[in-house]
Amino acid sequence: MYDFLVSNFKELNWENKLKNLIDVSNDLARIHESGYIHCDFHSGNILLNQYSYFIKSFITDLGLSKSLKESALKGEIYGVMPYIAPEILLGEKYTQAADIYSLGIIMTELSTGKRPFHGSPFNPGLALNICNGLRPEFSEKTPKCYIELANQCMDSNPRNRPSAIDISLKFSEWRLIVMKPWISNNEESDIKRSFISADEEIKTTQIISTNLQNSLYTSRLINAKEIKLAYESAKFRDSTICGLNVSNI
């Protein structure tokens, strides 16, 4: 998906983006309803097919998918670090909520036309920052409702993330509002205006090519044990410093 996004960013308005997100979230909902977790969900695993006047998006590469009954991790995970949920980086068991986190990251890509954390090395330092709440940015005029939903998807607590079907319904609601010739209430009017304003921003957005970093955005083994050890060491160090500061008061 990313290559298509970069090549066509200025031609893709928000109605098109919402249509792609509806396709993707519906696919994810079907995977989840079948009792599976994708486990390696990122924009490189989204295929876009063009059929004359419209584009259809599909989730691909289910080779690492797991059933909900499968056992917990054993210290190693496989994926693209910026798309991996913080609890997974810390070695917890995969859940469907981890796929939802990945969808939130993909939402930031569609907003900015940029890879998540482009320019940053994918090392334990980035993993620690993600576990401590670092998330990719949005473009300046991205609709507030869209940012709020993406942030819910990227919530540090997996229990707070919405389901794929609820996300799909929200995308569908917004797309219908954007396509409506007449708006009947203030809330819908505000939503439509925000997407129209975001469309204007697209025309002047500078897209930064990340071809030199493309190899980073492929799935690879990540040592969750190493990340968890560094995370716990940092927490212990912070608590020790805090304790020293309190004792000096």
TrEMBL record:
SUPFAM superfamilies linked to this entry: Protein kinase-like (PK-like)
UniProt entry tagged with the keyword rRNA-binding: no
One example GO MF annotation: ATP binding
Transmembrane portions of the chain: none
PROSITE patterns referenced in this protein's UniProt entry, alphabetically: PROTEIN_KINASE_DOM
Domain Protein kinase: 1-183
A Pfam family assignment: Pkinase
UniProt KW NADP keyword: no
Descriptive protein name: Kinase-like domain-containing protein
